[in-house]
Amino acid sequence: MTDTSRPQRTGAVKQITSHSNPIVKEIKGLVSMRKFRTQSGLFVAEGLKLATDALDAGWACSYLAIGPEARDNPIAQKAAATAKARGALILEVNTAVMAAMTRKDNPQMVVGVYEQRLLNAEAVDPRQSTVWIALDRVRDPGNLGTIIRTADAVGASGVILVGDCTDPFAVETVRATMGSLFHVPLVKMQKDKFKQLAASWPGSVVGTHLKGSVDYRTPEYKEPTLLLMGNEQQGLEDDMASCCQTLIRIPQVGQADSLNLAVATGISLYEIRRKQLEL
Ligand code: SAM
Known about the structure:
This protein is an alpha/beta fold.
């Protein structure tokens, strides 16, 4: 589990005009290098919507950088006041510094740095759950972000990262979650621990597989459901597939070998949650 026990700070406001300011360099490092994110336990989320999502959900904010347009924006001002009251350092920056920090030509008006929350296996309580999505070695940040967003939309209990996965706190992943990262519990565990969890799971344990013999629309999914998705290149490993009570397949016609991982996850989740979701 990521250590989030940081000393409480008093909030403050600081103006930064230089690209070589150490905080600018620190944020650049968090944007571009997984090693920096892992060492510091911090990550970057761009945009005002993500800042309000993070603050509303009580995530600890270390820095909130606000560009010139944010200064006349009441929502941005409220976010800055909330973050400062909770101990964040508010960075007033110009557009050039914001662009340098985020390595983007058209940066957002607000960029936040938050403390990571990655839970361990004990955080998964099947008795309190709807559906958990377990991802076997997910590699693509966009897929992971889209799956977290979809998990949020269907009311899933959380997402489990099994084995060596892409960084859930990479900027591309965070962006693709559209703020759902701040609402969906994320758990990391190794394969052996996952196998133990699957063996004692009280509801349905379902894998998606291109060789699955069961049409995904036919099972009676018993809540809590554990839905296991395979790696983008290799699919589900045999020992992971054998953890599942059922291997489902989504029918395909045409020439595509398979569906995109995030698309297959979305289709499966909507079927699993079909009876619970209403307009
Ligand atoms: N070459 C890989 C293979 O042979 O499994 C393709 C993996 S696919 C891009 C990534 C994951 O999405 C699969 O492991 C499975 O979990 C899911 N998936 C994709 N298409 C599917 C389908 N038609 N039915 C069931 N699951 C599917």
